[in-house]
Amino acid sequence: MILEAKKLSKIYGNAAAYRALDQFDLMIEKGEFVGIMGPSGSGKSTLLQLLGTIEQPSSGSLMIDGQDVRGMNQNQLADFRREKLGFIFQDFQLLDSLSIKENILIPLVLNKVSSAEMEDRVQKLASYLGIESILHKRPYEVSGGQKQRAAAARALIHNPSLVLADEPTGNLDSKSAKDLMEILIGINREAKTTILMVTHDPVTASYCNRILFIKDGKWLSEIYQGEKRAAFFEQILLMQSSLGGEQYDAKNIRL
């Protein structure tokens, strides 16, 4: 088991307290590709913040890769995130002052990996992601799709136990989004990398093994992908429709 969350709750404020997450349970096995979906304000982002150890839950337990992260202090949490977790953000969060290569290598530099190993890893990963030609460029010199591939490389280069992706296709056009998701599904299948992704997009979600739906901070339901991705996509659309989300015409969408 890579991740086991039990009765996670997050409450903001005191007198007029707001319960963003309420008694939430989640279990993820090694090698799964899990999606989190729900209406705006349902608690998706709060859940990802807690699972990424960026925020602490008000109550409940959280085990990641066999470690109880709730018992860690801030320095221990920073070390844990650096060694065990990879993050892919909607807005890329690349540093314009560094080259693409230098951005990708940040986790290895922080982990004090040797120069030879860093070079070997970055070249192999860049080749897999198709970004060898832009390694020397700065983020502002490349496209959104290339930026997100670089961000994915940074999240993966230290072989994390768990990759957390927050709307990774949100700023991409449909082709770049498809390219990124095919890369992530390939890494998930070939390297058994565990991925947890928050998304509102049903096409992006249809690449997952299973989708967990959340509403008002509570677990609502989950669905699993079968043999046909198109059928899974339609299940996702039905769930979104029942939750009052954005409407899509499946006939006009190519998977």
Structure summary:
The chain has helices at residues 44-51, 74-84, 100-110, 115-129, 144-156, 174-191, 202-205, 229-242, and strands at residues 3-12, 18-28, 33-37, 59-64, 67-68, 85-89, 162-166, 195-198, 210-215, 218-224.
Protein traits:
single chain, 255 residues, alpha/beta, Rossmann fold, 6-stranded mixed sheet, 4-stranded antiparallel sheet, 37% helix, globular
List the helices and strands and how they pair.
Layout: E1 3-12, E2 18-28, E3 33-37, H1 44-51, E4 59-64, E5 67-68, H2 74-84, E6 85-89, H3 100-110, H4 115-129, H5 144-156, E7 162-166, H6 174-191, E8 195-198, H7 202-205, E9 210-215, E10 218-224, H8 229-242
Helix pairs in contact: 3-5, 4-5, 5-6
Structure description:
With 255 residues, this protein is α/β, with parallel strands linked by helices. The chain has a domain at 29-95 and 161-252: Rossmann fold (3-Layer(aba) Sandwich). It has helices at 44-51, 74-84, 100-110, 115-129, 144-156, 174-191, 202-205, 229-242, and strands spanning 3-12, 18-28, 33-37, 59-64, 67-68, 85-89, 162-166, 195-198, 210-215, 218-224. The strands form two sheets. It has a six-stranded mixed β-sheet with strand order 6-7-8-3-9-10, with helices on both faces. A four-stranded antiparallel β-sheet has the order 2-1-4-5, covered by helices on one side. α4 (115-129) packs across α5 (144-156) and α5 runs parallel beside α6 (174-191).
